[in-house]
Amino acid sequence: MSQRHKPGAPHRAQSIKRRIQSEVIEMPELPARQSLPHVRQHSKSFALALLAIVLMGALLLATPWTTESGTRSHPIDAIFTSVSATSVTGMVTVDTQTHWNFLGELIILILVQLGGLGFMVGASIVLQMLRRGQARLSDQLLMQDGAPTLSLREAVEMSRRIAWFTLTVEGIGALVLTIRFSRDMPVHDALWQGLFYAICAFCNAGFDLTGNFQSLIPYRTSAVINVVIMLLIQAGALSYIVFEDIYQKRKWTKFSIDTKLVLLVHAVILAGGAVIFLVAEWSSALQETPPWARPMSALFQSVAARSGGYATVDWANARVVTVFIWVGIMFVGGASASTAGGVKLATIGVIAASVYSTIVGREDINLYGRRIAASIVFRGMAVVAIMMSVHFLGTIALAITENAIKNSDATFQALMFEVMSGLGTVGLSNGVTPTLSTAGKLVLCAIMFFGRLGPLTAVYALQRRQRKPHFRYPVAPIRIG
Questions:
Q1: What pLDDT digit, counting tens, does each position of 417-430 carry?
Q2: For residue 415, what are the contacts with CB-CB under 8 A and spacing of at least 6?
Q3: pTM, entire model
């Protein structure tokens, strides 16, 4: 008779099973999982990194080894230049060419590259996370739990592609500009200026090496320089994401709704700005430009107003109507996740579509056969309201520091233009910035830094705060208009 058929055998088997279950089995520890990027952590790290770059740049620019005279720069000028370069604005309190030596110019160029490329990479990752969080319910749950919706491998790969795109475009631009500049200066100077302008133009930072705060006015009739600078500005202001979508799909009907909206609003503002500037400034700011070059110059100002910061005319001679319209164009800026500032093209496009839908009596906001969620419209309106409020408060603050305290003769119009140029990280100036008081320069520093991070931070914060309510209140009639 076998063991399993003996009486009492099942009891012994159960005893053995219980003893095995009661034993503690030690498992080898799993290797620590590498932390993955998520929106909250990435946003904080990005803002702190940008601030650290500003402080490091200010310390370097404050040393006597960075100036032509060999003396220390005023701390406020060093801080202002560092903030302007890192936020890829281009506003200056001292002339870049005459005040800084080669080392100082190199530090400024590095800050511009870090600010431009770093923002494109950081903003692209954050916006891609937020977009995925909107796309699927599973991703929304991950976002709520604080988990990433973008893997580390995807984040690294996206960063690599953006860096390759940036360096390729800047390299081609630097080569063409070097060849053109070599006609006017020695080859080593032409090489440095070609590289400097290519990086600054792509990053939409209006720093120049012309001298005497002239920007690109001496090259107002050079078709090569005008066209190359415009193309570089556009490449940076439309973002890698848009160009990637265009390259992959290569057909308007296949483009994403976001790409279509960006390109449409971009074309309308670009063409409208050029026509307005040509008509309004034909006998004013364009008076010193030969008639044959005035259309090109008008187009250049329209392109640069989107965050490029370069100018081929003296903005001190611009008419009031042009200044007022340019404040609006600078407010719009470029595409999301680009080197440009402003409230962004897609934001304006969504708000314009919502206004049109309201006027024609549509309940939903539709674009290219798709419905735009009401939450996106509300976030867009909130971003616009926040930026308008900051512009208003910044203009008032600058008016207090310059008119009330310093008793400067700067007009309110000029101060309003300067504040919007800083808030939109544009860099255009009508000559007021170098004459600002210390308090006024600090106000513009804060505005430039907010203009670089403000819209992205606002979009993230507003999305994180929006949750589906558990209940809804009854509708209340409100009188409008």
A1: 999 999 999 999 98
A2: 395, 398, 399, 402, 403, 432
A3: 0.84
